[in-house]
Amino acid sequence: MNKYFAVPIIILFFVCNATIANARDYVVGLSPYQTAEQSKDQVKALLGFFLDNAEPGDSIRFYDAFNLRTLGSFTLPSDDAYRHPKAKVAINKKIIAALFAFAKTAKEPSGDEDPRVSGALRLPQFLKFIGKNLNHTGGLDLIVLGSPLYDDPKEKDYSMAQDTYVPAESQINALPKLTPFGTQGNGKLLENIRIHLAYPDESWKKGNQHSFLVERLWALYSLRQGGALVTFVGDLPILLDRVKNNSPAPTHNYNPDLSLNRETIKDNKINIVVVDKNSTTLETEETNPQVLKSSQVLIFDRNLSQEPVSDGETFMATNVEVGITWEKGEEAIDLDLYGRPSPQAKVLYFGSTTSPEGEFPKDFTSSPTSSNNSYETIRFHVPVNIRHLFLAINVYSAKTKQDIKGEIRITLNNKTYSQAFKLGVRSGNGGYGERGTLNSGKASNAHWIVIDPLQVIGLIQS
Prior knowledge:
CATH class of the largest domain: Alpha Beta
Strand content: 15-25%
Shape: elongated
CATH architecture of the largest domain: 3-Layer(aba) Sandwich
Number of helices: 11
Radius of gyration: 27 Å
Structural class: alpha/beta
Number of strands: 16
Distance between the termini: 85 Å
CATH topology of the largest domain: Rossmann fold
Number of domains: 2
Mean pLDDT: 83
Order of helices and strands: HEHEEHHHEHEHEHEEHEEEEEEEHEH
């Protein structure tokens, strides 16, 4: 071969292979249980996205994610001619017609043999199907559109459509033959699979705690098998934008407690999770008026509980609130409460009053009392692992001749516990040592005290 012809041929070889190497694989899972109009809108949005953004060499496979049925593939040869939307349509007429035919047959659940949730998916089975049957060594974006509540009429014992049932983490650690949520033995079945889930509306949510637990379930389920829940939203355009930009999975503090609520295995089934004490549902103001009544009572006006906290209750405590009060000095004493539910979470205090996990309602620059109708508190809107809860108090300003004495209270699962605290300083330090205390988890000087919540609730001795 003439060496002058060899150079362009080699260049062409590398250009073609670069295109193939950069090709992306997509899988789309759709629900047959929604209105035909909703399904049609989804198909239009997805086709519009891929016509605009899919590149030559990309592969897009479509599935019925409830019946685990292949709908077809949207393919693009590795040729520059297939960058144009018209060329993409011309070569994919068959799958486009199949998708609109699928949308036309979609229907809302209506009978006993149908699931009870709109947009139903058999997500565990679908993820397993994709992990076993498709090559994902080079990475795969899995787009799933439907409800995050698992509801299979053939497995009613594990239905998440019942009130606010959410499977325990111990089910994730179980054998797949015992529960649809089991992953034991699956290894890295979902490795390199980036999961994007968009639910059709907010109707499935039964409050902040419930929605938090559902998202956490699927994040842990994916993580346990080497995958990543990258997107969990109720907005399809946001999902598609995250897919387009190859957005990273959000950081989270979903540390799995796989020993939590270890259920007894009976008849090859694992009992439905208890996510709140003595109940298989999360208590809300709607399901239990006592919750509303309790939440309206100030934390320092609540009756202290004499009932000990069980070890299991600490892993996913609900309705968690922390409050402090302190004695008056000769002049105003200003103590500041700091708290975060896990090392990865944002710290709540007077300088940072809201986070995805909770809120810091009000800062007090002098001793709070019942007369001003509040106490310095932090409230968490999501379940909290008390073992990961960090609490600290700082003497910001003071002028006193005696030790500063106060009380801290913690409410969890609608039970309240108390502990006294004392700081042997006579003045404040303006918050000096904040970073050191938060980073190390230990008081960086005498103006700080770090509270062990397990001592407050009596689980360990002080």
